[in-house]
């Protein structure tokens, strides 16, 4: 019987543990997983007739805003709802987008710590297999179960949450003010700033920051708020400069023109080209 071979970069943390688990549990139970240094992956893949994954330029890799785990699900047509629930967690952990799933920050912290404690890649994979088995059971059977179960505890939580919602005069914490300035400074210079960078700068736990962010930033997630600022910057550039839309997309940190167009229309209700035409028209006819 043919056993598939899969090869990727050494020193795995998130995606390169999750994908082998997915392969061995749902694609080929006898698959061989091979870890080698980055620069050797493609050469060794050809020598060993192995399929490379989680590497730029190969089929099994990140695509759009999704990670390699997502591509495996798509490629092998895996419809299991529990796997897609895990995919959001893996994606969030692997891309520092903890707004994708509340469990993503914990998964990231767990494997970052384990990767420092365990230097043998296959030993780490063996432990990771057990961890993902547990995560799968949770995602399949227990994801709706809460740690707090008793009626008295629910009542206390309800009172607590109601108090928080009604406390309209509560002053924003100092970190929120600092973060607003920090985001603006970063976007003014390079239009690229992640939640992980913000948590590092402020020395605040990223999962806490992700959870609390929307309370002080227009009821938006970190990602949505940053995208809003990028679009506002793009509109300013359209109003005040002669840059092309492609140049503006680049200057405001979008990976490509289509991504810029999509986010701009979602934020404003019209395409960048339509907005630019209406801006030019209003300049030509200021009294109209």
UniProtKB/TrEMBL annotation:
Q: Which UniProt keyword terms apply here?
A: DNA-binding, Transcription, Transcription regulation
Under the heading SMART domains, the entry gives: HTH_ARAC
Record-annotated HTH araC/xylS-type domain positions: 177-278
Q: Which residues form a coiled coil?
A: none
InterPro entries per UniProt: ChrB_C, Homeodomain-like_sf, HTH_AraC, HTH_AraC-typ_CS, Tscrpt_reg_AraC-type_HTH
Check the record and name the Pfam families matching this protein.
Answer: ChrB_C, HTH_18
Q: Does the keyword DNA-binding apply?
A: yes
- Return the protein name: Chromate resistance protein
Q: Which organism is it from?
A: Mucilaginibacter pankratovii
């Amino acid at each position: 019987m043919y056993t598939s071979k899969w090869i990727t970069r050494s020193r795995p943390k998130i995606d390169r543990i999750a994908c082998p688990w997915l392969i061995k549990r749902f694609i080929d139970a006898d698959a061989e997983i091979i870890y080698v240094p980055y620069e050797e992956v493609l050469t060794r893949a050809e020598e060993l007739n192995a399929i490379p994954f989680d590497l730029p330029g190969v089929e099994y890799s990140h695509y759009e805003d999704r990670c390699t785990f997502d591509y495996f699900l798509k490629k092998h047509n895996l419809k299991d709802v529990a796997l897609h629930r895990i995919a959001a967690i893996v994606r969030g952990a692997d891309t520092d987008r903890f707004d994708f799933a509340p469990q993503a920050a914990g998964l990231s912290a767990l494997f970052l710590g384990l990767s420092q404690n365990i230097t043998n890649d296959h030993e780490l994979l063996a432990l990771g297999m057990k961890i993902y088995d547990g995560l799968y059971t949770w995602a399949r059977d227990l994801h709706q179960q809460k740690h707090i179960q008793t009626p008295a505890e629910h009542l206390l939580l309800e009172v607590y949450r109601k108090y928080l919602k009604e406390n309209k005069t509560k002053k924003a914490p100092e970190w929120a003010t600092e973060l607003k300035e920090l985001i603006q400074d970063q976007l003014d210079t390079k239009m690229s700033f992640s939640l992980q960078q913000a948590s590092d700068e402020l020395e605040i736990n990223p999962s806490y920051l992700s959870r609390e962010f929307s309370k002080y930033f227009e009821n938006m997630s970190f990602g949505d708020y940053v995208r809003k600022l990028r679009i506002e910057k793009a509109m300013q550039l359209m109003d005040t400069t002669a840059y092309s839309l492609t140049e503006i997309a680049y200057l405001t940190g979008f990976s490509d023109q289509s991504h810029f167009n999509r986010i701009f229309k979602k934020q404003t209700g019209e395409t960048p080209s339509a907005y630019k035409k209406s801006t030019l028209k209003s300049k030509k006819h200021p009294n109209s």
